[in-house]
Amino acid sequence: MHSDRRSSRHQLSHDRILDAAARSVRRHGYAGVGVADVMKEAGLTHGGFYAHFKSRDALLAAAVGHAGAESGKALSQRMAALREGGASPVAALVEAYFAPLHVQAIETGCPVAALGAEMPRQADEVRMVSCQSVSALVELARSALPPDSPKERAFALASSLVGAVQLARALGEPGHDMLQATGAALIAQYDPTS
């Protein structure tokens, strides 16, 4: 029983570290993630880091995986709510991905949009998990398209979503108009019901 409590506390600490690291990597990029800062944000001491991760790269890989899972779940929930309101699958994906909350909240949004340009320069362990986040986003796009759609359409839709969010973030307030125009164009192009 004593071992179960220790294991439970260890898991809670691990989860807090992952949450803090996932926010940090999206907020600051891979290079901006410091072990000491993550541990402090998680409310833990720096010395406890190696009880959870063998290296900073292991932390980054786990953080990106965690960020991708969180983002995917949040997007799927927003899409489901939009679908219940009558939106088509493509419109639900576009509206959920371009939602102001998603675009403005870099530290809780899609890690692909936050980190895409940095992914190729990471250690293999980190790059591999980052690529899985890209694949998950492409799969989400594929699931929104009609079943007989060629896989290249999912690539194009996912790429358009990420690129538009990155540009909107770069532009600030004027990016809102760009997202509206891009969203309308994507729905017109990829939604067979429009």
From TrEMBL:
Domain spans labelled HTH tetR-type: 11-71
InterPro entries per the UniProt record, alphabetical: Homeodomain-like_sf, HTH_TetR, Tet_transcr_reg_TetR-rel_C_sf
UniProt KW keywords: DNA-binding, Transcription, Transcription regulation
SUPFAM superfamilies named among the record's database cross-references: Homeodomain-like, Tetracyclin repressor-like, C-terminal domain
Alphabetized GO MF terms: DNA binding
Residue ranges of DNA binding: 34-53
PROSITE patterns to which the protein is assigned, alphabetical: HTH_TETR_2
The protein's name: TetR/AcrR family transcriptional regulator
Source organism per UniProt: Telluria aromaticivorans
